[in-house]
Amino acid sequence: MKHLVLLLSLIAPATLVLAEQLNETTLTDKLNGTELTYTYSGGWKFSIKYSADGVSYTMHNYNTPWSKKYPYQAIEVSKGVYFTSWFDLGRNDYVTQLINLNTKRLYGSVLLAKEKIHFEQAIINELKQN
User: Fold this and answer.
1) What is the pTM (predicted TM-score) of this model?
2) Is the dihedral of CA 91, 95, 99, 105 positive or negative?
3) pLDDT tens figures, 38-55
4) Partner residues linked to 108 by β-bridges
5) Pick from 69, 105, 74: which is nearest to 88 by CA?
6) Where does the Molybdenum cofactor biosynthesis protein F N-terminal domain start and stop, copy by copy (predicted)?
7) Domain map of the chain by residue range?
8) What are 49-74's pLDDT values in tens digits?
């Protein structure tokens, strides 16, 4: 029993520190000044710009004009890997993306107009960073 108490007293502080780290969500603005052009596996091609004013995008398949800027959030998961999200008020779409600048891969999930789910991977064709 003494050994169990000793073991628990050694493990408990480390467990609390890990739990605190996992509960932290630190947002980043490191994507500001970044522009990506990417193509989803289904053929849809987009360009997206990140700035301090928000995120905007265009869809190449229909030559859409750039969207207005929407506030976005980003977490740097690891060096060069970002998890992002924003809500497109104009289309009523909720977008999340996992962007890996190291491997030039993007994984996107979009709840389209609260009715349909888009869930696809993409290749980043162009990457510009200021």
Assistant:
1) 0.79
2) negative
3) 999 999 999 999 999 999
4) 97, 120
5) 69
6) 27-106
7) 26-129
8) 999 999 999 999 999 999 999 999 99
Angle at 40 between CA 49 and CA 92, to 5 degrees: 60
Highest mean pLDDT among 3-17, 62-76, 109-123: 62-76
Burial (CB count <10 Å: 0-12, 13-18, 19+), residue 50? buried
For residue 20, what pLDDT band results from cuts at 50, 70 and 90? low
Selection from 103, 96, 110, 94 nearest residue 127 by Cα: 103
H or E element in which residue 58 lies: strand 54-59
8 pLDDT more than 50: no
DSSP string of 80-111, one letter each residue: TEEEEEEEETTTTEEEEEEEETTTTEEEEEEE
- Any idea what the Cα angle at residue 56 is, between residues 126 and 76, rounded to 5°? 70
Compute the distance between CA of residue 119 and CA of residue 44 in angstroms, rounded to an integer: 12
For domain 26-129, give the CATH number: 2.40.128.20
